[in-house]
């Protein structure tokens, strides 16, 4: 989720803990690319639209340091999660891992955090769609449609695609994500002539902007719930190959984020008729941000590329999140023997069963988005609390537990891969997570700039 998506959520019917399969096979190039694509697609979602909005006050240099630091932190906790997941049989998801290591309450806590994260992400995407598609309709058709109407239509469209079945929805998501990559590359090339290096720097008072931006930056690396899915996809691949998948996928995401922030901050000044100041006055509306970028572009193709990129990335992100949220709800509700496989809907369940699950999946975040319109960035920032829970606190606690005597008594086997860590590293990583959550709470209270 990421901010970019939230794939790989706990699925129903996860196998019990036991000895994992031996992993000695070299990962074929096609599978390696597929695994990298899986993680990258999870990270690079609609949350990208928020990165320049929260980074503009600190300038490019500080934003780059923050993004690289969080990349290192979240990649490290991802490698922790890799070791934990490799100690379980393939297919064991987050909820079952939490239950095995920490008991029933642990499983409940993990599922609750996953639900909260995905519901908040969903509400954020719906809110962003209201302003983004509203801009599209006004620009191309001259229609002024209320944001609430657009949000309802957008949610209904995603719900219908998800109800068609996970295989079709996943195929559509992959297609749209590939289009996103092409559009993003074309967009950066188009914006490049509009970049002014002077716009990348801020004179004084940059640091206070950092504290409120860090939680939003963290959501850009929220891939951890996809780790079990990636391991299952890779089959019996050796752990070193899986480690390389992590490093390559996260590095691609980092470079993409830095290029995107560079292009946006360089093109749009901090002050002026068309500037980030106008975005701030709008309550950080993503639609206003896109409109300001379009106004300063020299290439006539820039507005169309921005509109296309923002529109398609909102589709891919919510599709991925909707599929994952349906999985979590299915596992939590446990509809008996009808519980289905991943992304496929309840096996043996009729349309009413799927429609009821879809209502639980899509109606609550829609209600929140309608109540808090133009709150895309704010909702994304709030989701960072749950990203920290699943991407920092849980990997640290799970790895610590896995390497303890109780885990050995539970029948868990050595995973064949051990991330380098010592007691002080546990404390440092946990403290970083606590600081990020603290910054978000202070931001919500208005104690730091956000």
How would you describe this structure to a colleague?
- By secondary structure, the chain is mainly alpha-helical.
- The protein has one domain: Up-down Bundle (Amino acid/polyamine transporter I).
- The chain has 16 helices and no strands.
- The chain has helices at 29-43, 51-55, 59-86, 94-141, 147-163, 166-191, 207-219, 227-234, 239-267, 276-281, 286-296, 302-333, 351-371, 376-402, 405-409, 423-444.
- Helix 1 (29-43) packs antiparallel against helix 8 and helix 4 (94-141) runs antiparallel to helix 12 (302-333).
- It is globular and about 65 Å long.
- The two termini are 20 Å apart.
Keywords, please?
single chain; 16 helices; mainly alpha; Amino acid/polyamine transporter I; globular; 0% strand; 450 residues
Please write out the topology:
Blueprint: H1 29-43, H2 51-55, H3 59-86, H4 94-141, H5 147-163, H6 166-191, H7 207-219, H8 227-234, H9 239-267, H10 276-281, H11 286-296, H12 302-333, H13 351-371, H14 376-402, H15 405-409, H16 423-444
Helix pairs in contact: 1-8, 1-9, 3-7, 3-9, 3-14, 4-5, 4-11, 4-12, 4-13, 4-14, 5-12, 5-13, 6-12, 7-14, 7-16, 11-12, 12-13, 14-16
Q: What order do the helices and strands follow? A: HHHHHHHHHHHHHHHH
What is the total number of structural domains? 1
Structural class: mainly alpha
What is the 3D form?
globular
Average of the residue pLDDT scores = 84
CATH architectural grouping: Up-down Bundle
Radius of gyration: 21 Å
CATH topology: Amino acid/polyamine transporter I
What is the fourth-level CATH superfamily? Amino acid/polyamine transporter I
Strand content: under 5%
Helices, by number, come to 16
Number of strands: 0
What is the percent of helical residues? 55-70%
- The N- and C-terminal alpha carbons lie at a distance of 20 Å
What kind of sheet is the major sheet? none
């Amino acid at each position: 989720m990421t901010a970019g998506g939230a794939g790989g959520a706990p699925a129903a019917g996860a196998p019990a803990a036991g000895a994992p399969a031996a992993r000695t096979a070299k990962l074929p190039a096609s599978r390696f690319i597929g695994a990298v694509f899986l993680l990258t697609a999870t990270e690079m979602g609609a949350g990208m639209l928020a990165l320049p909005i929260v980074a503009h006050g600190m300038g490019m240099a500080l934003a780059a340091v923050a993004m690289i630091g969080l990349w290192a932190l979240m990649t490290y906790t991802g490698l922790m999660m890799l070791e934990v997941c490799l100690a379980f049989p393939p297919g064991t998801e987050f909820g079952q891992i939490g239950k095995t290591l920490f008991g029933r309450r642990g499983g409940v806590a993990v599922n609750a955090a996953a639900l909260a994260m995905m519901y908040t992400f969903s509400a954020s995407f719906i809110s962003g769609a209201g302003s983004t598609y509203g801009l599209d309709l006004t620009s191309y058709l001259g229609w002024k449609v209320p944001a609430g109407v657009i949000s309802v239509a957008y949610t209904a469209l995603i719900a219908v695609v998800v109800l068609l079945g996970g295989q079709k929805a996943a195929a559509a998501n992959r297609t749209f994500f590939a289009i996103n990559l092409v559009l993003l590359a074309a967009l950066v090339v188009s914006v490049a002539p509009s970049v002014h290096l002077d716009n990348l720097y801020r004179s004084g008072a940059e640091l206070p902007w950092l504290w409120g931006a860090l939680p939003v930056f963290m959501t850009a690396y929220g891939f951890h719930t996809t780790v079990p899915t990636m391991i299952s996809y890779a089959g019996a691949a050796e752990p070193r190959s899986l480690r390389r998948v992590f490093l390559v996928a996260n590095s691609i995401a980092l470079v993409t984020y830095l290029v995107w922030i560079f292009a946006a901050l360089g093109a749009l000044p901090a002050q002026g008729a068309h500037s980030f100041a106008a975005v701030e006055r709008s309550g950080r509306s993503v639609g206003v941000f896109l409109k300001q970028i379009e106004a300063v572009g020299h290439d006539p193709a820039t507005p169309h590329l921005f509109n296309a990129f923002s529109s398609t990335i909102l589709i891919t992100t919510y599709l991925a999140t909707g599929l994952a949220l349906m999985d979590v709800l299915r596992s939590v509700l446990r509809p008996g023997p009808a519980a289905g496989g991943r992304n496929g809907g309840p096996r043996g369940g009729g349309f009413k069963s799927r429609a009821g699950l879809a209502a639980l999946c899509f109606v609550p975040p829609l209600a929140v988005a309608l109540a808090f319109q133009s709150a895309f960035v704010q909702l994304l920032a709030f989701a960072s609390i749950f990203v920290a829970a699943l991407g920092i606190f849980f990997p640290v606690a799970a790895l610590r537990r896995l390497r303890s005597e109780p885990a050995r008594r539970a029948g868990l086997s050595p995973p064949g891969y051990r991330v380098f860590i010592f007691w002080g590293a546990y404390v440092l990583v946990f403290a970083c997570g606590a600081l990020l959550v603290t910054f978000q709470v202070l931001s919500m209270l208005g104690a730091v700039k956000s």
